[in-house]
Design goal:
Layout (H helix, E strand, L loop, with lengths): L1 E3 L6 E3 L11 H49 L10 H26 L10 H47 L1
Antiparallel strand pairs: 1-2
Length: 167
């Protein structure tokens, strides 16, 4: 019997000798062996798919790093206060990147992914919540720092005007 595996270009061929009963111990071992091979092939396909995604992610990370470097080189101190929309996008992007990095780290750190218990789910949710709150607080601090810088520059301008009026 031959059947094509869905989503792949390979065939699985199962040969059951006519002399063997379907209910014999050898037939059961053979069936379990074939089943295990099929599971390993599915795992291999998932790993290859993951490698392709990681390669695309690696290229994406490098592009973002290059864009970040270019933005750092071309940052204009005068227009810093007008970039709040870009900062919000940056905050969201940073949060997503941290979540992805954490997920990848946990997958690589876990020796047997199937052995994770359901009790680790609340820990993951709590970790995600903490990351989100950290991102929100970081944004608020950034906003306050921007306001402080703006007020200090206004103060400096007012002091200059005062000096000019006194002179």
């Amino acid at each position: 019997m031959a059947c094509r595996s869905p989503g792949s270009n390979s065939y699985t061929v199962v040969i059951i000798p006519l002399r063997t009963s379907l209910y014999s111990l050898d037939a059961l071992r053979f069936y379990l062996w074939i089943k295990r091979l099929k599971e390993l092939e599915k795992e291999k396909d998932a790993l290859y798919s993951g490698l392709e995604i990681l390669e695309r992610a690696r290229l994406w990370y490098f592009q973002r790093l290059e864009e970040n470097r270019a933005q750092q080189d071309n940052i204009d101190p005068i227009n810093v206060f007008q970039e709040s929309a870009a900062e919000g996008r940056s905050c969201l992007l940073r949060s997503c990147i941290q979540r992805v990095n954490g997920s990848l780290g946990s997958v690589m750190a876990e020796p047997n992914v199937t052995s994770t218990s359901i009790s680790s789910l609340p820990d993951a949710v709590a970790d995600s919540d903490l990351r989100w709150h950290n991102t929100v607080l970081t944004r608020e601090v950034s906003d306050k720092n921007r306001q402080i810088s703006m007020l200090e520059s206004e103060k400096d301008a007012l002091l200059e005007q005062l000096d000019e009026l006194q002179a």
